[in-house]
Write a structure and sequence with these properties.
Strand order of the largest sheet: 10-11-14-15-16-17-18-19
Helix content: under 10%
Largest sheet: 8 strands, antiparallel, barrel
Strand content: 35-45%
Order of helices and strands: HEEEEEEEEEEEEEEEEEEE
Structural class: mainly beta
Number of strands: 19
Radius of gyration: 23 Å
């Protein structure tokens, strides 16, 4: 019995040396991952663990600065906002437990505010927020035509589908007529006119590949989402980045159908909405 107590005491001392306490409330973080290792201040990072509940109540620091804005998302993980006041550069991101003296340290790069501007690794408008999607109650009559970013209406994904031998539209995108492009036809932007291919599978998941002019290939997966899942600021009409749309009549300014895509290359989310354009019919219904 004495020997057993000595062993337990030794293990506790050893764990203290490893930044852990002998505390039944202290839990490890198996399956720890983060959505990105680089972000400007004001952008969210999603931290995941298995199970996600292991993250509930944990504090997160960037260097010595506490990420005061955080929200635990049931069955998903912990979303934290990179705090203001940090200088661009490498910092240690620490995930702590209020009941413990331990922490998990990860390398993180705090970027400048213009990090995504004209950056060939991040062509589409990246979301500052993490969106957790749910399926919508109403689906569009067709996926075809223009899907725009509410952050920059000049960013457009133009979908057209292949027709079968009977003239009926399939779930496969036509790579000859589907593009990542500028809504207003601007030249020199990274999304000027990049060919797209892909398909919508039987579960309603969009599988999309964009072949860019610089020779790179970016792949996405995503699905239609409930617009209520998107921040309210993305539901109101604006003409940011696309003055060519400012003259559209009110009937064409509704954002009733939205899609959330995730890049396999960067893990970044792309939010797009279906923009009805006058006198442009759907080929596939």
């Amino acid at each position: 019995m004495v020997k057993s107590k000595v062993v337990v005491a030794f293990l506790c001392l050893l764990s203290i040396g490893l930044n852990y306490r002998c505390n039944p409330d202290c839990d490890s973080l198996p399956g720890l991952s983060i959505s990105t290792t680089e972000n400007p201040a004001g952008y969210e990072v999603l931290i995941r663990a298995n199970p996600p509940s292991a993250l509930q109540g944990r504090k997160v620091f960037f260097g010595d600065m506490l990420a005061e804005q955080s929200r635990f998302i049931d069955n998903v993980g912990l979303a934290v906002t990179v705090p203001d006041g940090l200088n661009p550069g490498k910092v240690e991101m620490r995930i702590e437990d209020p009941d413990c003296q331990d922490f998990v340290a990860l390398d993180f790069n705090v970027t400048s505010a213009d990090f995504f501007q004209d950056n060939p690794d991040y062509v589409f408008p990246p979301l500052p927020e993490i969106i957790i999607p749910t399926l919508p109650a109403d689906f569009p009559p067709s996926i075809e035509n223009a899907w725009l970013s509410p952050q920059n209406l000049d960013y457009c994904l133009w979908f057209k589908f292949v027709a079968d031998a009977d003239g009926n539209c399939t779930q496969t995108l036509d790579p000859l007529t589907s593009f990542e492009q500028s809504t207003c036809g601007k030249a020199g932007v990274l999304y000027e006119e990049n060919q797209m291919s892909g398909y919508m599978d039987s579960h309603g998941v969009m599988h999309l590949s964009v072949e860019r002019a610089n020779g790179s290939l970016e792949e996405f997966e995503g699905e239609l989402i409930n617009p209520d899942d998107a921040p309210e600021k993305y539901l109101d009409w604006n003409s940011v980045g696309a003055d060519c749309l400012s003259g559209l009549p009110g009937d064409f300014k509704k954002r009733t159908h939205m899609m959330l895509l995730t890049s396999k290359a960067t893990g970044r989310q792309l939010l797009i909405y279906q923009q009805a354009i006058p006198d442009v019919p759907f080929d596939c219904l």
